[in-house]
Amino acid sequence: MNEIENLKVNLIPIENKFYGKEIVVTGLLTGQDIISGLKNKKLGDYVIIPSVTLRSFETVFLDDYTVRDIEESLNVSILISEMGANNFINSCLGFDLF
Fold first, then answer.
1. What is the Cα–Cα distance from 22 to 88, expressed in whole angstroms?
2. What is the pLDDT of residue 95?
């Protein structure tokens, strides 16, 4: 991604407070943990979230928070990315799945 002009990607780890910090499975992150982990951070134009954090075929997290709830709480657009490097790169380039 260093080859793409004007693209800057920041990876921000999110602690799982909902189930406990020893839980490191991406699919068990909740909306409130994502909000908590990103609050007061410089987020840029949008935030990319892996699709495995959402219920199948929905935009709802395990704690019933929605993608829209996160967008409103953090005042940033959310893009959802399927797992895998190619999908992540497409999301970085602004291609959203939902």
1. 25
2. 65
